[in-house]
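Please annotate this fold before class:
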Amino acid sequence: MKNRVKEIINVETPKLNITDKPLSSDLLGKMNAYWRAANYISVGQIYLYDNPLLKEPLKLSHVKPLVVGHWGTTPGQNFIYVHLNRVIKEYDLNMFYIAGPGHGGPALVGNTYLEGSYSEVYPNISQDEAGMKKLFKQFSFPGGISSHVAPTTPGSIHEGGELGYSLSHAFGAAFDNPDLIVACVVGDGEAETGPLATAWHSNKFLNPISDGAVLPILHLNGFKISNPTILARIEHEELEKFFEGCGWTPYFVEGDDPEEMHQLMAATMDRVITDIRNMQFIARDKKDNTRRRWPMIVLRSPKGWTGPKIVDGLQVEGTFRAHQVPLLVDADHPDHLKELESWMKSYKAEELFNQDGCLIPELAELAPKGIRRMGANPHTNGGLLLRELRMPDFQTYAVKITSPGAVEAQDTLILGNFLRDVTKLNQGNRNFRIFGPDETISNLLGAVFEVTNRQWDARAVKSDEFLSPDGGVLDSMLSEHQCEGWLEGYLLTGRHGLFNSYEAFIRIVDSMFSQHAKWLKVTLELPWRRKIASLNYLLASHVWQQDHNGFTHQDPGFLDHVINKKADIVRVYLPPDANCLLSVFDHCLRSRHYVNVVVAGKHALPQWLTMEEAVMHCTEGIGIWQWASNDQGAEPDVVMACCGDTPTLEILAAVSILREHLPDLKIRVINVVDLMKLQSESEHPHGLSETDYDSLFTKDKHIIFGFHAYPWLVHRLTYRRTNRNMHVRGYKEEGTITTAFDIRVQNDLDRFHLVQDVIDRLPQLGTKGTYLKKLMQDKLIEHKLYIDKNGQDLPEIRNWKWSSCRTLAKARNNPK
């Protein structure tokens, strides 16, 4: 192949025009026949229940009772697939196909069936008449497959049910895969979405030396469901300049005559592969990783190409009416049955398949072989390529704890040192990256820049920091959509990574998380799909640390969204300190096929557990903190529970007040790291049994629960438990630009409100409780007056230490 590359580079490539005809008449005929076969298979999937080869006249009983599918994009995608097959064979390319248009399922399923990869994965869908019948019946049919490209489709890493992320996934797959070309078909409706419109700028991050290439193919068929598309209706010059302005070299393939289009597409494909090989060869030979203007293709073809032209007197081909099912074939439209039969017979299946239903050998020969087939490319089943990360010993990064709360640390700053060394240990393999929208330094993970840089291929100036074409961090694009999409593509092709983000703005990718979680759920049910590395979120700059950002940056609702997904997939961790964060993140980076959400703070807070204690606590996920409790040997009067770093601080501060003023009160302190421990074991694999839950929280004592996020989430997780005396304090949509403690006060999560809560639930406290409650109310007024005058929290808040309470210090050393 090296000789072939040099030969390509030296070839003069004049401007393409319609007279460029690289296909011989024989090859042209065969490729057109293969395209017809793909179209036939696609129509059959949409319509047919029986009679797959039309060996008998078509009857209504041969048609599915409910015809569902999308034809409009399908013939164009079939056209692209056959041309990609040719260049894969011609240039021995390592390439796979991402189908961005929403419901192009018939095309990808049909083409993987024709090339044989589908039948290898699903042997019951054999390459004969019986298998073809099953292939047709299963499409959009109960117990079958969806109408879009899905995890069930070999060769796919991209769910076709949601638009906007195909190009982001393509770039994620290409990063650190220097021999790979990702052909990404972008629908012109999809191109109107915000994420896709932004994704064109991903080319500023592609290193021609160490990364692969992305070949975008914008499929302009002119219409969405019932409206025209913008990019199809602007002038040619405007469209060309748009893509040139985004840093691409666009090549146009436009028309509707199959013979002319095949020749033009073939010439264009030769040109763009030449361009890609040329750019990569020069970059790698000269070690020149400056940004290239990569080629892309704009394919303009009729929507519903080769399908019914006119139905019931209305134009269909080339209009929005071809988008879904162009012919309604049922008892109410008897004339359409003949039209369907005529349409399918126009592809001349008898010339394409033998009597047994097998694709004839001269056409089957057009498909690549083995793993060069796009449906069998190992990158599309990333678990096949997944290698274990090299991991440092996380315990060596421990914060030294002499006693609970005696020292303060910034949790994510400590984690940054660990991630720095994870990055360093895996640089040779280039299989680990950190992603985030310009928040790596802000979230205190800047230590990673001691060993790597931000990947950046655009222009740099002297004052820039940590920019390099071959960096291991992708955080230089202020788009959560792109970072999420890049990471997903990276994971799906067999690598590891994490996404760090401000907690409030991770909500931007709610729908992307949902699609990835659904992908993981479905692939767990497919034996041929191998597990991939987990999608790891680190959410920092969280709701309780917004001294200067205020209300706009306060939204912990991602946790509510996450737990709606299948329990087999999602995990949520809220470590209370740095040592617990290290333990949790070591586990997450080693895990497989989960979505792990970790919430951690970056401001200095008290540190509670030694590393040995943290490992034990995180392994269990939940536990009684005996050193903070005084109910040993007796039933507690109240349970004080906490989940999250800030709630842990306030619960412990409340406990210290209660212990000091009400020393006879028996208090049990419970800390939750693994949120899903609260759910029943029948609902989540991490959930506690009823017996274990009751032994911790009791069956009838009042539980005052300080929670990081919206209070009702805890109620949702625990509503089936025996003990219904759950009183949760968390974020309730109150906030502004104020002090850290005042945010807690506004949401009733502060120590003073928590003490009042306990008193309100325990009338047996009598007069002592009444006077303590009055003291807490006075403290709240004092707090408000002080911050309004001084702009900072009370000294007793800023300087509070757990060890300042003598009775508590004794409790750790002399537990009863």
Summary: DSSP finds 28 helices and 22 strands in the chain.
